[in-house]
Design a protein that fits this description.
- With 229 residues, the protein is mostly beta strands.
- The protein contains three helices and 13 strands; from the N terminus they run βαβββββββββββααβ.
- The strands form three sheets. Strands 5, 6, 9, 10, 11 and 12 form a six-stranded mixed sheet that branches.
- β3 and β4 form a beta hairpin.
- The protein is globular and about 50 Å long.
Length: 229
């Protein structure tokens, strides 16, 4: 998965799809989020569970444990194959389970004749409903963000036609499985089953070429989602 995605509806839109009857414990804007081109290191909305209900926080995309900071940019993704057993994400698995709501994500495909040229694609659900990335996060302990906060999106190998776009993709959960993913009583074993077996199948998605203006984070309008002829 390359490092850009979109989340542009109001948070209420995602929460109604995820858990229409569940208590949301903090306030959030009813205005559209309008983040068409989310880039690493920026703060963006995630959904996490608490004892009182669901909470929406703005957290930096990218995370590293304290002992790895400064060595390289914090990773933005965590591979499903190693996230549960590796040392790097030990602090986050399994109690840091969160969701990153989204409308779609971007991938860049190399031109087979000219590898330096890349064509961006936008990938979304055919239904165009909200999608929920399985993610892990460390969130602020108080009201203010701090340098230790961050989140990573869990990725898996692509299959079928999507592998032609990129060899990896985010683990996208249905609303039902997404609710289960952030359940307070979810066992580590069941969490592993969800991210290994419950990702939405390729047939649920569609993708199309978009303009190269998505390459600049300064471009944040809906025009970057327009299909390229």
């Amino acid at each position: 998965m390359c490092g850009r995605y979109s989340i542009y509806e109001s948070m209420d839109h995602y929460l109604k799809e995820l858990a229409p009857e569940q208590l949301i414990i903090n306030g959030y804007d009813l205005w559209p989020i309008e983040r068409y081109n989310v880039a690493p290191s920026t703060r963006v909305e995630i959904i996490r569970p608490t004892e009182q209900g669901l909470c929406v926080d703005k957290v930096r995309w990218g995370w590293a444990p304290f002992w790895a900071k400064g060595k390289r940019p914090p990773p933005i993704n965590a591979r499903v194959e190693t996230v549960m057993t590796g040392k790097f994400f030990k602090e986050l698995w399994p109690n840091g389970r969160v969701l990153a709501p989204a409308n779609g994500w971007f991938e860049w495909v190399k031109d087979p004749d000219e590898p330096k040229k890349k064509q961006p694609y936008y990938i979304r659900l055919k239904s165009q409903k909200p999608m929920f990335f399985a993610a892990l996060a460390q969130v602020p302990s108080g009201l203010k963000p701090n340098e230790g906060d961050g989140f990573v999106i869990i990725t898996e190998e692509s299959d079928s036609g999507m592998v032609d776009i990129h060899d990896r993709r985010p683990v996208v959960l249905s609303a039902e499985h997404a609710r289960e993913w952030i359940g307070l009583n979810l066992s580590s074993k069941r969490g592993e089953e969800l991210i290994r077996q419950a990702s939405r199948p390729v047939v649920d998605f569609e993708w199309y070429k978009v303009g190269k203006n998505v390459g600049s984070v300064r471009n944040q309008g809906p025009e970057i989602l327009a299909p390229k002829n």
